[in-house]
TrEMBL record:
<dbReference type="InterPro" id="IPR000620">
    <property type="entry name" value="EamA_dom"/>
</dbReference>
<feature type="transmembrane region" description="Helical">
    <location>
        <begin position="68"/>
        <end position="88"/>
    </location>
</feature>
<dbReference type="GO" id="GO:0016020">
    <property type="term" value="C:membrane"/>
</dbReference>
<comment type="similarity">
    <text>Belongs to the SLC35F solute transporter family.</text>
</comment>
<protein>
    <recommendedName>
        <fullName>Solute carrier family 35 member F5</fullName>
    </recommendedName>
</protein>
<dbReference type="InterPro" id="IPR037185">
    <property type="entry name" value="EmrE-like"/>
</dbReference>
<feature type="domain" description="EamA">
    <location>
        <begin position="7"/>
        <end position="109"/>
    </location>
</feature>
<keyword id="KW-0812">Transmembrane</keyword>
<keyword id="KW-0472">Membrane</keyword>
<feature type="transmembrane region" description="Helical">
    <location>
        <begin position="94"/>
        <end position="114"/>
    </location>
</feature>
<dbReference type="Pfam" id="PF00892">
    <property type="entry name" value="EamA"/>
</dbReference>
<keyword id="KW-1133">Transmembrane helix</keyword>
<feature type="transmembrane region" description="Helical">
    <location>
        <begin position="40"/>
        <end position="61"/>
    </location>
</feature>
Length: 167
């Protein structure tokens, strides 16, 4: 994941800087002066809270709940922004916005209830031991792949042993 962000940043730097300079010279997009001190504070705060902390919390939420629940929770920002508009800007949502928010909230609640019921009622028995379904979801892709290989490798060893006993 880190290499992806690095490649995106390098591409923006190498391709974006000359493109921005060309757009400035041609008059299509004028480069404004450097930000003031107050604007730098806002930019840094936005970068720290809007990017660094939010990415950390996103990855932490994925580790705690699973990728589906964490991804669906991001869609809740739409209904929450509507609530914030009502509380802070005194702008009530339109009927179309309310209708659009209903499936978003229902999908999150449904996925959370489904994930909770699956984690509490389903057990997976492997050669390594007994794991809840929620425990498997919390594993990384690499660990999940190794768990699957461990189960299948144990089955293959049992099959090889049975075939040796037949001969």
């Amino acid at each position: 994941m880190n290499i992806l962000f690095g490649v995106i940043g390098l591409t923006c730097l190498v391709a974006g800087t000359p493109l921005l300079y060309f757009l400035h010279i041609s008059g299509i997009e004028k480069i404004t002066p450097w930000p003031t001190e107050d604007e730098w504070v806002v930019l840094l705060a936005s970068g720290i809270f809007g990017t660094v902390i939010s990415d950390y919390l996103c990855l932490y939420a994925s580790a705690l709940t699973g990728s589906l629940t964490a991804s669906l929770s991001f869609t809740l920002s739409i209904p929450f922004s509507m609530i914030a508009d009502v509380l802070f800007r005194h702008r009530p949502p339109t009927s179309l916005q309310i209708i659009a928010a209903i499936p978003i909230v229902l999908s999150f609640v449904g996925a959370a209830l489904l994930g909770r019921s699956m984690a509490s009622s389903t057990n997976v028995v492997t050669g390594i031991g007994k794991l809840n379904a929620g425990d498997i979801e919390m594993k990384s892709d690499f660990e999940r792949e190794n768990l699957i290989h461990a189960v299948y490798d144990k089955d293959d060893e049992d099959d090889d042993e049975e075939s040796r006993n037949l001969v």
